[in-house]
Amino acid sequence: MTTFPTLSRRRILGSALAATTLGHPFLQLHAQTWRGRDPFTLGVASGCPRPDGMVLWTRLAPDPLQPGGGMGDAPVDVAWEVAQDERFRHVVQRGKVLATAELAHSVRVELKGLAPGRFYWYRFTADSARSPVGRSRTAPAEDDTSTPARFAFASCQQYEQGFYAAYRDMAAQPLDLVVHLGDYVYESSWGSRHVRKHVGGIPTDLPGFRSRHALYKTDPDLQAAHAAHPWLVTWDDHEVANDYTDDMSPVTADPAAFLAMRAAAYQAWFEHMPVPMHMRPDGPSMTVYGRYRFGQMLDVLLMDGRQYKSHHACLVKRNPPRATDCPERVAPERSLFGKAQEAWLARELQQAPTRWTVVAQQTLMAEVDRKAGPERGYWMDGWDGYAPARGRLLDALAADPRRNPLVVSGDVHTFIAADLNREPDGKPVATEFVGGSISSDGPSAGAMAPLLAENPHLRYGRGDVRGYALMSLDARGCTVDFRAVDDVKLADSAVKRIARFSVEPGAPGVHVETT
């Protein structure tokens, strides 16, 4: 069994954050300041773990919500260190990287040459200022057949609608990985009973999107979860504009204007995420999908379900993608992932399988008939608007029964456990879990009841609570816990497990267990 070390609880220096970070061993501030100010206000992060390394991230921003983060235009040398222990007595790598205004003084270090399957600690230094300490972990060696895997997955964290107590709980969990499935930031203000406010209006340019990401990154619980575990990140729509597809947005009629806005949004996303430099966007285009292998136990196929999406079907003028139906919905050329990404996924699924394969993607994959009775209605922004593409994917997942396919999803602000069937009333070919939302408002129990009644393959559904999911994988099986906060409007809310499920190797489908 893997032992997960934690940092000691040293005294926190820096009164502004002391009250909120007291429980976070990964947010230990230091006395040094950046020319009188702390440049590490957005914390540290790691991501994209491989057996020999990962990506480390930070951004220098002493005034994070001001243009340029308060750094000016001059480049800054940033030193970094990686150690085998939290006190940095055994430093294994160190170096320097240049932070430039072109990338908002963000910093990324792409580590290689580390040992597989072990923890490392890291930190940054700029001038006389030192960052918080982060902890990361390399993936197991590719031939490792016995190491289990445990990861959290989350999505949808509208800043105004609730606090991030779920991330405080996540930071304390013994995890190998966090997978974020999109809607990391929200471009717009909506919902009720706001507990805090966005700064500025709806972003449309690079300074606006930089400010929005910086605002979210100032949250101490989100910083703690980033500092505690390596992350894999993808996006959905709210990082740019609600319900956009390819070059079309329901709120920006001109495709050229929208693509200019998308380019700014992608640039700001890249600057604030622990992803490698080769993912740097080219205008409005950026490749975020990829495969991440964790020994012989787990393959994570991280997908992009937004950038290449065929335009919505069954729409009149530019109405939002409502629940309806039309022949266009089942046109075979329609794709949610796009042709190139579909082809990439098909090639990856032909590779030798690990014990478990997880397709990590944005939105509920299971079919959901949203109309009671014999008439059928669908939400066109989700997989039901791309039924042939879903069929192709399920066929590919079912082609090799050794693969033990699982799908993890976000977007719908609801905890869902579902059997994925190729045919109605058929046997499951895969199993899906939707991890709720960190803070974004979801459907009430009354709204969920008719959906569950109409769609029996949805084995569990709850949208009236906020939280995230934990998935544990080993040779014996898969276990998934749904964890929810008691009250998302309270920063110090308790978090507890509300449901547990299991999946047996070689037998797709949800087994509902007691909580």
In the residues, how many domains can be counted? 2
CATH architecture of the largest domain: 4-Layer Sandwich
Tell me, what is the CATH class of the largest domain? Alpha Beta
CATH-wise, what's the superfamily of the largest domain? Alkaline phosphatase D (PhoD)
- Assign the CATH topology of the largest domain: Purple Acid Phosphatase, chain A, domain 2
Radius of gyration: 22 Å
Strand content: 25-35%
What average pLDDT do the residues reach?
A: 92
Q: What is the spatial order of strands in the main beta sheet? A: 5-2-1-11-10-9-21-22-23-24
Low-confidence stretches: 7-23, 28-33
Protein name: Alkaline phosphatase D family protein
Domain PhoD-like phosphatase metallophosphatase: 151-482
Pfam families: PhoD, PhoD_N
InterPro entries: Metallo-depent_PP-like, PhoD-like_MPP, PhoD-like_sf, PhoD_N, Phospholipid_Metab_Enz
Structure description:
The protein is α+β, with helices and mostly antiparallel strands and 515 residues long. The chain has 2 domains: 15-137, Immunoglobulin-like, CATH 2.60.40; 149-304 and 357-364 and 405-513, 4-Layer Sandwich (Purple Acid Phosphatase, chain A, domain 2), CATH 3.60.21. The chain contains 8 helices and 24 strands. It has helices spanning 15-21, 165-171, 206-217, 220-228, 255-271, 339-348, 387-398, 445-454; strands at residues 44-50, 53-59, 76-83, 91-99, 106-110, 119-126, 129-130, 134-137, 149-154, 177-180, 230-233, 290-294, 298-302, 323-324, 356-363, 378-379, 405-410, 415-421, 428-435, 458-462, 467-473, 478-485, 495-504, 507-513. A 10-stranded mixed sheet has the order 5-2-1-11-10-9-21-22-23-24. A 7-stranded mixed sheet has the order 12-13-15-17-19-18-20. A hairpin with a 2-residue loop joins strand 1 (44-50) and strand 2 (53-59). The longest helix has 17 residues, at 255-271. The model is unreliable at 7-23 and 28-33 (pLDDT under 50).
